[in-house]
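Usage example:
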Amino acid sequence: MDIHTLTRELQLDNGSKIVMLVADGLGGLPMSPGGLTELETAKTPNLDALAALGVQGASIPVKPGIAPGSGPGHLGLFGYDPLHYQIGRGALEATGIGFELKEGDVAIRCNFCTIDAAGKITDRRAGRISSEESAPLAISLRQIKIPGVEIFVEPVKEHRFVVVFREPGLGGNVADTDPQKTGVAPLDPVAQNPQSQRTAEIAKEFLAQAKKILAGHPKANFHTMRGFANKPSLPSYKEVYGLRAAAIAVYPMYKGLARLVGMDIVGQAQTLQEQIDVLKQNWDKYDFFFIHFKYTDSTGEDGNFAEKVARIEELDSIMPQINALKPEVMIVTGDHSTPSYLKSHSWHPVPTLLVSDCCRPDPHKAFNESTSITGGLGHFEAQYLMALALSNAGRMGKYGA
Amino acid sequence: MDIHTLTRELQLDNGSKIVMLVADGLGGLPMSPGGLTELETAKTPNLDALAALGVQGASIPVKPGIAPGSGPGHLGLFGYDPLHYQIGRGALEATGIGFELKEGDVAIRCNFCTIDAAGKITDRRAGRISSEESAPLAISLRQIKIPGVEIFVEPVKEHRFVVVFREPGLGGNVADTDPQKTGVAPLDPVAQNPQSQRTAEIAKEFLAQAKKILAGHPKANFHTMRGFANKPSLPSYKEVYGLRAAAIAVYPMYKGLARLVGMDIVGQAQTLQEQIDVLKQNWDKYDFFFIHFKYTDSTGEDGNFAEKVARIEELDSIMPQINALKPEVMIVTGDHSTPSYLKSHSWHPVPTLLVSDCCRPDPHKAFNESTSITGGLGHFEAQYLMALALSNAGRMGKYGA
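Running the assembly step on the lines above writes:
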């Protein structure tokens, strides 16, 4: 049974407010044996003060040993079983650039590639063409017309762009055209089920027209299509939790993920302080606030330990402004760990802190990887964090009599 | 896969004995930040001595963040997945007053209500009529006769009573007649599936006769019907664990829940000391003893911190008498937390202690919320406690070769 079966049935509305502050990739590792993690190194007096009041634990994003991408990482935090709800690659790519998918849309990740005179691929990424060079090329594909279908083409980065087909009833189950090797021609788009037959035909026609448009380019003279996907169908925060939810994020990917679960995207913040300002401005309008802080992840991905420490300290410095709003439940967590040592997302549990008047505090007076593993929340799957948040907020009745 | 698939296959009978002492609502909260919980405040030298010998952990009744009622709380402790096995409201109400449901019975929770001359509800609870006034009224409904069906009417409390229809093949899926608001007439009972057609007809006839009988009463001149439910079908302790199980409880609800999993209800104890006496008297006749102690819950529900502390100390004082019987496995736990601070059941994990000669003790020398979160049993779902009990009792073989 899905946890939403319970939250749908048991939800209450008592007007309380929940703030979930997601420091992307929060968890880390020491750079050498015996060392400290980024979070243990950072000076975080405000988080430590919250730790003394609250309860902490180690959040397992998906299952032990599984490192998630941003999609499943956030779905877990939002309480959606990340193994059940899957966002197709094309849909995630479109979401990541802020494209608002509609019901029935099919989104496709496309890669510019180089083909030879015989039509065989010589470079699957068109020599990793620069964004500056590829964006106008992607935009040139907007001239493609196919009767009955609305077509969107959006540049992404380097050799990547997104194509979206919009026509009622289009299926999203079409095989990739990327053969995953050079020396062979791209594959034709082949439908994997009857509902996707029309989609495959549209894709084939799109590719034929694109080939003509791109023909003269020295590197990006064709493209492949991968990850065909319909808009994912996720129940909304309003329905599953009874929450009016707002997302305060800087990057399109996180706005997109929040939009998929029915959150309103509020403000145009570009800095953490601006995000907090947006939070204050919207305080009376929503029950739940998702605040996304990107830089604990990007610094980790860069392997920049010192800068990740600095970003954690930046995050710590704004905590008093959130506390001043007196949310009934305050949560600080991450969607996964991004240790500078690994320069990538990892599977390690994420230190997670929850503060409420009824949270049963544990003895910890600091907040980091070491303390979280012996915290009162134990080691728990991220998908249960929302149920904990709701109960701590007084927003859930009891299950069964 | 259900844990019972394993216990059915792996169970052994070595004559060992298991005692599960359930202090209802055992877990608590501090009344103010930095304070102690009820269990941390209580002087519990005997439990602390057991803690030094045993292993403890934090039992999650259902899932993180879910506060259970008594039904799912106990099913979990008994090893029955509380999300899979659900006890219908009517069946639980009947169970709670000690009514022994039989296969095919349909139990219904009824509320006396007040209707006006037009038949519209003016009070859904008949002015919360007293038990003294309502009991004879409920009993007066025993004169209702419907050919072919055996009918039972039992008073519960205030405006509530239970009706049970007994006739082979009756389905329990009938919609509530309570419209959940005043100013409208009660609904007719409507079958939700074909097997419940006959049940709905019986209910309709019952309501028609009840209306005549109650007509003259100033407050309770009609009643609604809710939570239609068949007797839940639960496999027995004997079958799933190979245990001859006895329940020693004071309150009907817990006797009823134990009966549903095939335990024998032994003794007529009214006090904890009498419960221990019953335990001693039946020691040779059973393998498993469920002892239910109610007052850690009821004092918590009352918000009476000091009295909950006193009740925990009372419980502690009888521990030596149980130890003296030398059970192979001794468990102290609760079906959920009932913090005096919240005056209600809560989602917080329940301190749980297990003592056996092979339990791998943890370093703790006290037993409470703080110690349990770092105990050797970790944070675990209650539904696995019986498997732990059986293995510690030498009653389970290994899984696979």
